DNA sequence: AATCTAATTCGATAACCATCGAATTAGATT
DNA sequence: AATCTAATTCGATGGTTATCGAATTAGATT
């Protein structure tokens, strides 16, 4: 889950919190000192520190009256190294529904009964539609051109175009002369 | 100015924008495609992309109907390398008023007339007060103990403690026998 | 030229969040 | 034990921002 990454960036997406990190990079400070330096109230600084702690960027220990906060340098280095690694980025991308685009195109171009209003002019959208349409054919089964047209006609009257494009986009194949089609 | 850093982190501090970055890491996408994939409206995605562009994380070019956005990998690498460098961190810290802590302590312990309500019990605060008090003495000039007490008395009646602590914290020095003091 | 299509901009709304002050808690000093 | 101090928590408030729908713009296709 990329929740952790969001927490990390949110923690640093505030100028006062960045200043806190900058100060703690020099040496540890108590809440009171930070508040005085940043000219904020202790309660506000406490709030900021809890956000930084949630991202594991700082930790604290008691020291007489004070709770002294220090920067977790390890975390900082680790994050800056791994943050934009290929694995990290693709794990974030993995969270999106890869079919959402096709689904939307199909939805936009379909009528209530499942037939198509029109055939999209744009290649990408046409391809999405064809990926949908081709599901009407069973894998490994052979169809005559007549049967193909019957099936396609439930989507759109222009079965010739659909048939041609399905082959063109290599979603179906046609045997040289016999006029037999199959899904690939 | 750390404004740039804040912009950078703010740009990534949103889960949908992170997903966009994750997707663009694979390949370029149009606004419409991103909107379908994230199940957001194009106007919303446009908004997100403009934030990412402001941080120079993405750029776009027109392509037929679409404006196709791509990730600026250079920027990503550069940022992840320099983000937490010592120079970057200390430049952020440099924006805070280093005297703000002393000023606050002095303010908290001073009455309207400039004299001190009490002497702080905590070392750090006492030190801040002493750094303030010592300014009443000219650099390079010598003072008799009697004169020192006169000057200190405008801050607090316990001149003996003040005098002793000023020497203890090495803000003033005292000649062995003669009883002369000077600021250091 | 007329028409589409996608992108952007704008205004409105709801959710989020930084900040504060007051009240409470935790802990140390006396 | 009583008192003091700093930290935290809580509630309220004002400012920010993610999201949407409508209107507009920019550009390509016909």
**What is the ordering of alpha helices and beta strands of chain A?**
HHEHHEEHHHHEHHEE
**Ends apart, CA distance between termini of chain A:** 35 Å
| Count of distinct strands of chain A | 6
Largest sheet of chain A: 3 strands, antiparallel
Unreliable stretches of chain A (pLDDT < 50, length at least 5) are none
Beta-strand percent range of chain A: 5-15%
The most extensive interface between chains reads: A-B, 47 and 47 residues
The helix/strand class of chain A is alpha+beta
Averaged pLDDT of chain A:
94
Q: Assembly state here?
A: homodimer
Radius of gyration of chain A: 30 Å
Judging from the principal axes of the Cα atoms, what is the shape of chain A? Answer: rod-shaped
Number of distinct helices of chain A: 10
**What strand line-up does the widest sheet of chain A have?**
1-3-2
Q: Share of helix among residues of chain A?
A: 40-55%
């Amino acid at each position: 889950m990329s929740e952790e990454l969001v927490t990390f960036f949110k923690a640093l997406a505030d100028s006062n919190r960045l200043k806190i990190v900058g100060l703690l990079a020099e040496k540890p400070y108590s809440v009171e000192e930070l508040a005085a330096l940043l000219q904020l109230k202790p309660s506000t600084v406490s709030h900021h520190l809890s956000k930084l702690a949630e991202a594991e960027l700082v930790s604290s220990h008691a020291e007489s009256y004070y709770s002294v906060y220090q920067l977790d340098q390890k975390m900082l280095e680790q994050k800056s190294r791994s943050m934009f690694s290929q694995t990290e980025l693709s794990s974030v991308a993995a969270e999106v529904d890869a079919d959402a685009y096709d689904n939307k195109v199909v939805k936009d171009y379909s009528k209530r009964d499942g037939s198509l209003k029109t055939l999209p002019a744009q290649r990408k959208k046409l391809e999405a539609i064809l990926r949908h349409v081709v599901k009407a054919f069973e894998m490994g089964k052979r169809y005559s051109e007549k049967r193909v047209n019957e099936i396609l006609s439930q989507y759109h009257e222009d079965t010739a175009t659909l048939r041609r494009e399905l082959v063109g986009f290599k979603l179906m194949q046609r045997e040289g002369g016999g006029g037999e089609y199959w899904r690939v």
